[in-house]
Amino acid sequence: MTQRTALMSAATALLTILGTVPAGAEGEWHKVGSDARSGVSGLAYEGPAADGAGVNALIVHDNKRSGQQHLSRITHGESSSDVTPIAWDGAEPVDLEAIEAVPDMPGEYLALTSRGIVYRLKVAASTATVVDYSPLPAIGEGDDFESFALVAQQGKLAVLWADRGAGAERPATLYAAPLTFASWGQPLFGAVTRKAYRAPYPTGDGTRHISDISVTGSGRIIVSSATDAGDDGPFDSAVSEAGRVGVSAAGRVRVTLAASPAVLGTFPQYKVEAVECLPGSADAVLGTDDENLGGHVRTVPVCGS
Asked: For 247-277, what is each residue's pLDDT tens digit?
């Protein structure tokens, strides 16, 4: 049995046990990068495409050297996805891993590096301008971040992020905090809570229990999890429902994790590092960073209420 066949068989067996079918019936994978510098490490919905038949989204690349591409725009439709570069104006990041649109602030985004630096960006046409940047609060020893999500409820903002974890010995740590902004643009974080999370799939050595986070309008926490055996794979991934989040009128954040997270879809041979629930839709756009094999995007129906 080949390695690919073994992975596919394991995924099918898991889905049979859970009584689900593989997510992704609404679309196939579209290649959007051809090498390790062009994978999708994070993705943020920008708006509908000009033709009304697809979506525009910003994607971040985990490049680490000055002058390399950090941000691009994709136009993702049913049959194809086009990529155009976005120029970066301001202090350069190292290893961007996630990006999220700021609710009710058109053209504004927060992007996160693996070591916990948050960049506030203003994106206009083909340029992203750095407004400010600051570190996350409560960074733990060894934390390695790949995920970031904003939640808007009852007129308040909250943020979720996670250390990705590593295999059986290190679960992910999911952090949550209220979020406001200083008058000059700096993100300000309130009291931080944290919870441990273990992915139900994949479960092998080196599993990244949370590789990205998205939150539905009703507060469902949708996470991706991934594993890889090196820059050439093999890769394996899943998207699961991890729990729920709520924000009170006073701005308090409450996260409840599921005792048994539900696997919504598995994706053998792909390393999913981006999941973005589309507003007013059951669909999410997934993005992969498949290292030397490049990156892919796909639409999957995993975000229904």
From this structure: 999 999 999 999 999 999 999 999 999 999 9
pTM reported for the whole predicted model: 0.91
Closest CA to 120 of 146, 141, 91: 91
pLDDT digits (tens, 9 = 90+) for 114-143: 999 999 999 999 999 999 999 999 999 999
CA distance 284 to 281: 8
Mean pLDDT lowest among 12-26, 143-157, 161-175, 246-260: 12-26
In the block, tokens 């599921």 appear at 258
Between the alpha carbon of residue 65 and those of residues 36, 37, 38, the distances in Å are 13, 10, 13
Distance linking the first and last C-alpha atoms of the chain: 39
β-strand 208-215 against 193-197: which pairing, if any?
Answer: unpaired
CB 24 within 8 A of CB 30: no
CB 138 within 8 A of CB 89: no
Contact 272, 11 (CB under 8 A): no
Q: What is the pLDDT of residues 75-123, one digit of tens each?
A: 998 888 999 999 999 999 999 999 999 999 999 999 999 999 999 999 9
